[in-house]
Structure of Ficolin-1-A isoform X1:
Amino acid sequence: MGSVWFAVVSVLVLVQLSFADAVMKNSCTVSSGNVYVIYPGSDCTVFAQWAINNPSGSLQHCPKGMKFNTEPCQCDLASKVQCPASNPPLDCVDLPPAGISVSGIYNFTVNSQEMTAYCDMVTPGGGWLVFQRRETSIQKPLDFYQGMYAYENGFGQLGFEFWWGLQNLYQLTNPANNIRTYNLRVDLKDFNGKTGYGYFSNFYIGGPSDGYRLHLGGLEEGIIGDSFIGIKNMMFCTRDADCNNMAATHHGGWWYSDDTRSNLNGNGTHQGNYSGDVPDGVYYETFRGIWYSLESTRMALKPLHT
Ligand SMILES: *[C@@H]1O[C@H](CO)[C@@H](O)[C@H](O)[C@H]1NC(C)=O
Ligand SMILES: *[C@@H]1O[C@H](CO)[C@@H](O)[C@H](O)[C@H]1NC(C)=O
Ligand SMILES: *[C@@H]1O[C@H](CO)[C@@H](O)[C@H](O)[C@H]1NC(C)=O
């Protein structure tokens, strides 16, 4: 009995948090006056779970003029119809929130282009679109010493070790294409199980004619420090589209400069302390130094206002 009650309370708490997370979404009022949230294109059966206090109510009356939806929305819980998708989902925050949708691979339409991305719906708040991941302790880590074509189009296995692609990143994050402003979250782990994360504001990538230039604000939160200092506003470099031979000596693809303090796409075979003429491991100076190659890394993005 006690555990059932706990489960019910947990669900209610979860739903409350989800509402708070979703203030920018389309809200719908049910007859009792409770406010629910409708995501464009979502299935009303999902929202049946939300209507715990109102099992027979129907969701209706989506106010017009909200930022991401201008169409009225009608959902009839009894017939479980599909909500009209006035806007297809753009990124992971358009999915139903953490606890309802699962982490995994989802399709999005950005500037009428289809793209497939891995969404983390668990890590604080959910709604994170993961665009880079390393797991260097596996037997055959993925080779990140790739050319520009691979970095533009992405490589690896979504949801495991992969690079999502500069073209996708540009389409989604560039303010000229999309009104959303993104935060960057970086997660790092060393070989002793020490972990750290950092949130950075205002992450976006320039277009191909601008060398996929990195635009990034400061560290807002987290313990890893800012090792992007020195590469902000730099172009993306690869061994075949190099900048001062930096990709060729650092064995990766990155926004290199003369003051490079991070190399998360570097050589993953070093595993911990290493030495050499040029630091080429998977490093982040303010976490474990440039002569320590990390076990795992993850870079993810999420719109600012959610
Ligand atoms: C996503 O798009 C891919 C490629 O177009 C397609 O094969 C897959 O079925 C789509 N997945 C979903 C969930 O729609
Ligand atoms: C990565 O480092 C290993 C040694 O740890 C070396 O054998 C390998 O050639 C390096 N790979 C690249 C692309 O430099
Ligand atoms: C790695 O380097 C650090 C700093 O130089 C040192 O304290 C540590 O003992 C080294 N660890 C190993 C396993 O060599």
